[in-house]
Amino acid sequence: MADPSLSQTRTPEEDTRAEPTASGMSRRRLLGTAGATGLVLGAAGGAVGYAAAPSGATPLTSVGATKVPFHVKHQPGITEPLQSRGHLLAFDLAPGTGRREAAALLRRWSDTARRLMAGKFESEDDSDIARDAGPSSLTLTFGFGYSFFARTGLEQQRPTALDPLPAFSSDRLDRARSDGDLWVQIGADDALVAFHALRAMQKDAGAAARVRWQMNGFNRSPGATARPMTTRNLMGQVDGTRNPKPQEPDFDERIFVPEEGEPAWMANGSYVVVRRIRMLLDDWEKLSLREQEGVIGRRKADGAPLSGGDEKTDMDLEKTDAQGNLVVPINAHARITRPDQNGGAAMLRRPFSYHDGIDPDGTPDAGLLFVCWQADPLRGFVPVQRKLDRGDALTPFVRHETSGLFAVPGGAAEGEYVGQALLEG
């Protein structure tokens, strides 16, 4: 089944990654200073933070030094730029584990996340995997699945927005690798830092929970291009042009549960849909360039809509060619997934690509670990996916193999742990 992520997932390199320049000033601070002096930074302005590097790429030292705070309004790992390495895990609580043990586990996880995100990797039982590295934009994000609430006696606190997703006709779901009581997302710009955090989460789980499933992903590394660019997926398509942007006035309304929302413990939180989407790359690569562009509705070279302009140009859905045919086909993926074609439904897509080897028949097991955030999945993911289910040109080239929905509470205040309002409320 096709998915809204495949044409709209955005790598927000031009947003707010605080990369130190060679002079010691962070990119965010440098951009802010430029704005204060009257400079107008357009699309090219995103490259300012790269200017100090002779090679045109971000120095490795600055990539490693980038630190993301743990104590924030919304959990880290939602609005930060895509990291180059990621791990997604689901845990099931062990038999006999209840609310008290779950609270202790979330406290352990939060304490470890706080320490590791600050770049403090050494501890008495540390494996030394990441000892020589900086924090490398490490983030850890925690969520609760539908089944968690019955296992901990908290059914009355389960949000209605967490009700199971409806079935979609093209789903081919492996239930053993779907859902789960608890969900953990790990992202970092260094593979060893990410793996170190993964091991720490597994060890902290102890006897309280066991891994239900794990998925590993990657994205383009910071500094891999001469200037910040929207990333590409494994189909070679520019992927992320129309993602919601934090500076948009309705961004928080679309992505986060309001402070006065229900239930109260989800204030400033969000709901994440996680899907493993295999790309049928052998079939896709048999298409001509023109056919691939018709399936997506955008030029492969630069991500511009087939109706003309550049990547950021609004798509003209009514434009026709000399024969009177729509320039952007009626079933093109980019047309179907547009918010204005779905009652304004929008999601913040923040995925990882994956490659898990070659099947016995020679087929690559590769695709997208789709991760999307919204204030309510019934107003975000579900209506868009239902429309894709009815006739997206990309459907023959992708297959949804796993699925999960998790409630991700707001960030932890100083001295608190993630989910404390639920588990101790």
UniProtKB/TrEMBL annotation:
It is found in: Cell envelope. It comes from the Bacteria. Keywords: Heme, Iron, Lyase, Membrane, Metal-binding, Oxidoreductase, Peroxidase, Signal, Transmembrane, Transmembrane helix. This is Deferrochelatase. Residues 1-26, 219-251 are annotated as: Disordered. The chain crosses the membrane at residues 30-53. The keyword Lipid biosynthesis does not apply. InterPro entries: Dimeric_a/b-barrel, Dyp_perox_C, Dyp_perox_N, Dyp_peroxidase, EfeB/EfeN, TAT_signal. Residues 230-412 form the Dyp-type peroxidase C-terminal domain. It is an enzyme of class 1 (oxidoreductase). Residues 75-219 form the Dyp-type peroxidase N-terminal domain. It catalyses: heme b + 2 H(+) = protoporphyrin IX + Fe(2+). Binds 1 heme b (iron(II)-protoporphyrin IX) group non-covalently per subunit. SUPFAM superfamilies: Dimeric alpha+beta barrel (SSF54909). Its EC number is 1.11.1.-. Belongs to the DyP-type peroxidase family. Involved in the recovery of exogenous heme iron. Extracts iron from heme while preserving the protoporphyrin ring intact. Residues 1-10 have a biased composition (Polar residues). It holds the Pfam family Dyp_perox_N. Coiled coil: none annotated. Its cofactor is heme b. The keyword Transmembrane applies.
